[in-house]
Structure formats: C-alpha cells, structure tokens
Amino acid sequence: MFHFSRPKLIVNTKPIFAFERWAHTTLRRRTKRGTTDATSRDHILHREIVELISLKNIDSGRVRVSEDIINQFLNKSNSRNVTLRNVEIVAQTSEAEGLAIVPRLYETETAAIENDGDYRAGETFDVAETTLSKKKNHKLTVLKVPKTVPGDIVDVTLRRHYLNYAEADLNYIVLVKSPKLRHDKLVVCKHFDLCQGCQLQMVTYDEQLAFKQNVINKAYKYFYPELDRESLCDFGHVIDSPMQYGYRTKLTPHAKIPRKIHEDYLPLPLGFENVKIGSPVVDVDFCPIAVPSINEKLPFVRKSFQKNAMAQAKGEIKGQLPSTLLLRDSVRELGSANTECLTNPKHVVTETVGNKVFQFPANDFFQNNRSILPIFLDFLRYKISDIEGLFKHIVDAYCGCGFLSISLSDAVPKGGKVFGIELAAPSVEHAQHNARLNGLSKEDAVFVQGNSDDMFTHSEFLSSKVTGEESILLMNPSRKGSSTVFLKQVLQFKPKMIIYVSCNVFSQARDLKHLEKLLESTDVKYDVESITGFDFYPQTKHVESVAILKLRV
Ligand SMILES: C[S@@+](CC[C@H](N)C(=O)[O-])C[C@H]1O[C@@H](n2cnc3c(N)ncnc32)[C@H](O)[C@@H]1O
Questions:
Q1: Are residues 289 and 398 in the same domain?
Q2: How far is the CA of 452 from the centre of ligand 1 (A)?
Q3: Residue 406 shares a structural domain with residue 519
C-alpha cells in the first residue's frame, strides 16, 4: 500500500481554551477560511461542545486536553491505540455526528506500563456507568463519533485529540437506548458505515427533517438570538423532498493518487472520503442517492479510470491522472423524461424545471435535487404574490446561470426587468443564454459578470434604472455568505422584499443579524417574515434555508 500524506499538527503550548486560542491551534490546519469565520464548521462544533458541557454543569477545565495527550494521538506509527467500551452518545452536532463525554481513564500511564510502554499493543477501557462512578475526579474527554445518534452505546477507537475534544472511530454499536432514533434496517447503502457522503440513512425521514429544523434553530440561536423565533409561524420548518433516494443529479467521486503509481496499488479506491480518519477513500461502485443514469455510468467511469491508472503504472502514459471525476445528469431531449450522464466538465447540461429550460457547463453550480425544485419555486412564487402589483423588477445577486430569477420571471410585470450578477464568467454567459432560451429579451433580462459587492455601482445596473422601491432582491451566496459591503448597499437600495436562499444557515443567520445591526442607524426597517428549510439533500446533514424579509412601510 502507498502512504497517505499526514496532516501537520500545530500544537500550542500556551494556556488555552479561550475561543481565540482554540481557534488558532485547531482551525488553522483544518479550515480553508482560517480563524475569522465564526460560521465555519469547526467554530460551530466548538460552540456545540461548550454548550454541551455547560448543560451538563461540567467545568471547562475538566475537558481541556493536554499537549501531551494531543501528541500521543497524532497520526504516526507509535501513536496510542485506545479502545473505549460502552460510550454513551448524549448529543448530536449540526454535522449529524454523535457527542459523548467520557472519563479520561487513559490519561494516566497505567495502561501504557501494563503494555510494556508499547502503545500500539492496544489498550481498552470500559467507560460504563459503574466505572465512571468510581472515577469521579477524572478529567473528561468530549468525543465526536460519526454515524451515531443520541442514545447509542458504542465501542470506539480514539483518534486525533484537540484542545477540547477528540475524534473517535465507531467500531460497533453495543446497545441502542433510543430505538426511536436509530433504525439500521433503513440503511440501503452498503458503504454507509464508512462513506462520508451520507450521515442519516439510519434515521427515519421525519427524524431527518426534525434534525434539520433543529440545525436552523441552532443557527439563529447562535448568530441572531434577538430574532423572535417564537413569533414566526413554523420557524425553521423543513419542507420534504419528494424523492429521498435516487435524486442527486451530480456526483464527483475522487481518488487519492500517489505521486508515482505502482501496479501493487491498483485498483485505486475511487469514491468518497472515509469517516475513519486516515483511511483510504471508500471505493464506491453504486450511490443510492444518485439518479439512475449516474449509477449506470459509474462502472464505466471507474473502469476507464483504473485502466488509465494501470497504463500510467506501466509507464505507457505520462501526466497526472485527474483525482476527481464528474458525473452529471442531463435531459436528453426537451419535453422528454429521458436523461443521460455527462462526464466531460465542459459539456453542456440541459435541465428543465417547470416551464423553464436551463443550460450550463457540467461542472458549474446548479441545484442537485431536481425533484424538490418545483415545490421550492412554488413557495417563492407564493411569497412574491404577497407584494404583487407592488414590484416591477427582480434583482438576482450571486445568480449562477440565472436559475432563480429566470424561474420567477413570469411574475415580473410588463416593462419590468430581471437583473443578475455572478462572479463566474461561464455561469453568467449561460445566464444570458438561458434568458433568451426562455423568451426573455436583452431588455427584459440583463446578467453581468462581476462581484455582487459591486452590483449597485455597476454601469449596466445604473443604466437599467432598476430601483429598490420597485424590486425584489434575491440573494443566494455560497457557503461563506454575503459581505458587509453588499449588505450596506442593500439598505440604501431598499428593495420591497429580500429573499435570502442559503446552503449554510449559520452564515445566513449571521448576515441577517448584521443587516439588523446596520439598520439601527437608519430609518429603514425590515421584518423577517419567515425562515423555512428545504430538504435538498435527503440522507445527508445538509439543509437549504430560505429567509423572507419585507420592507416595513
Ligand atoms: C449557491 S450558488 C447560487 C447560484 C444560483 N443562484 C442558483 O440557484 O443556481 C452561489 C453562486 O455565487 C457565485 N458567487 C460567489 N461569490 C460571489 C460574489 N462575490 N459575487 C458574485 N457571485 C458570487 C458563485 O460563483 C455561485 O455561482
């Protein structure tokens, strides 16, 4: 087998646990966005852990992990091999992983001495209630265990330790204390135990929706606590997807390709990340959440990938093999339900949603669950109908290939306009193309390439004569959310309605709070009318959140 490159761990020796200190050491190597993004996954996890230990009345000092322990569990050949038995999962993170709090019985050297100092020999500790009561003064470790739900009693192997928690691999479920949550019979994928792609197959669909509503609630509790959630009808209610399997129209399996491929390494695993830290990617030959055309094509794509890898191992071809492959479903002909799977990222996908047609390059962004889109659009149309007759234009920030504004363009009255802005040039070219494809003239719909931050000063925007008092603003940024620059201009523009669609409800809540703060120094007022979830990705932890804000008149 080839060796995988090991992440470098930055260990901080200074006193810790302050949020910034934790962020400095733990986040730098783990998040792309560094330490300042409070809505990053690692920051959220930190908040969830702090909340859990405070709920359990545990002093934060008891869960602090020493540098020595962190070093003992680094990914290296002599790192400790500790198994814990009878670990009870007591909470669930917004990433749908279980959390447990266990006595740190492995803190002392006892076990190591028993094993002649050879950690690799393996040490096992039982953390069941009886043991715990005898060890009241022990330090505690917060464990994060994938594929578990509250009420599970599990057997785990400890992995990397951080300043206030440790990662653990699930070995097996010892006992299910909460049969309401875990239903292993529901799992349809043979790769579910290891594959990082899905988190919730063992949970009923109703419970999946409840989990996602909780995530929305948590996001607003953390980032916009001033919002009166109680007063909003059905706050965070998540609308279900008509298809819960076989819905995903894009799949990107990948491989870890060694610098020099040796024949012994073949076939290379090709699939998705493994929940077991440091393990090879899970070799996925069938993905039950993907549409049929993708699963039909997957064996051919895999075969061709392995053939190329073999040819490279034999020195028959040179150059780097692509580590990520693309499979994207596309409508074969308009008006027909027939679809085909495209694999060339530059090929153009055709997608029909209701009475609209969209085309875009296969590796560009487009919503991946075709089955829920008509319902999602009907919801937006219903919200817009509230101010019918009071708006003329739709402004589409972060517009991609124009999906949202073109879909809603039927609601634009005669003389009104659609104006969109998008950073990615290929997407905006296709937005222009899609406008024409759907009968919108150059006067009806203008899509420009650029940063949304510059939208309100863009020459084409200014010359379009689109005014806020006659507009609905759609904003659908990527995970990291919007910016202060953009939000400040929104308040000057004063659209009648803001529709904020987000795949990261934490950054959405942060932005809405920010908007409220900016409003304090103005006489403009927006009311948050509703926050609604849509289950674009059944079986996974993801939720799409739609916030509707109305200008107070
Ligand atoms: C979640 S996608 C939404 C696309 C589109 N609304 C849709 O539903 O298909 C976010 C889009 O924002 C674009 N984007 C990211 N940052 C941007 C920025 N600062 N200005 C304009 N567009 C941006 C991305 O390229 C991406 O196409």
A1: no
A2: 9
A3: yes
